[in-house]
């Protein structure tokens, strides 16, 4: 009967839900194990000053070196961490790795600003700024201004007051804060009124079609002006060609990051890349 069919459907739905919940628990358990067993890696992508081609910093990007599946990109596993304690644990692990790396670079006389992506949940933890202060204290060789936090607009949606308070406290510690994927949110403009940030990162979806799409060109241009008006450092992400770099430079964008300059890489490869770039920069205010 129709009634029985309906009941079956409900049952089926419950089974699916239960299965999904079970899968989610298994994935979380696997991720916890990955953290304990040291399967995560931090890769670094260089960022240059378009004025002179100097490497000014790097962005830390997490990967999972999976024993069977190989190197997994963050978007394949970060969603499974959301709203769990693991999200904060992995976040602190990336911060710790990055601080250790900044310390090593400092000891080699290298002044590189390293940016770390902070998940919305992690940033909104009331103790985030205290934990960050403790991590900085544990790395006395690191000037706080060499650390930059990249936050997403979504971190401000649920609790703008908490986000703004945390951002202010982090900046009081001397750490820089930037808005990542700027322009993709619903209230990017309004945010600038409430969130005191040091930098804006123009989302790569706008940069990608810079040379062919008039709207994207106009948007990128507007964000660069906006950054200047608010005293923010502007970085373009997703710069895939030196032509894009030239256009961004022309529009007054100071910093750039993208495959056209360098891909994210493990730190041993970055050391070599830095040597090569210093000797033969592909960009020095114009193509080298
Ligand atoms: P994001 O912070 O906007 O980072 C930029 C992403 O764009 C990186 O992808 C980078 O590899 C990629 N990318 C850089 N240049 C180019 C380019 O020229 N062309 C193209 N097509 N892509 C480019 P990735 O490493 O896969 O990271 C994806 C996102 O995952 C990041 O976006 C960030 O939101 C998140 N993420 C990465 N690492 C972490 C982390 O440690 N913690 C947290 N919470 N999120 C992270
Ligand atoms: Mg980022
Ligand atoms: Mg981004
Ligand atoms: Mg992104």
Automatic annotation (TrEMBL):
* Taxonomic superkingdom: Bacteria
Residues annotated as coiled-coil are: none
**Start and end residues of each EAL domain:** 24-278
Task: State the name under which the record lists this protein.
Answer: PAS domain S-box-containing protein/diguanylate cyclase (GGDEF)-like protein
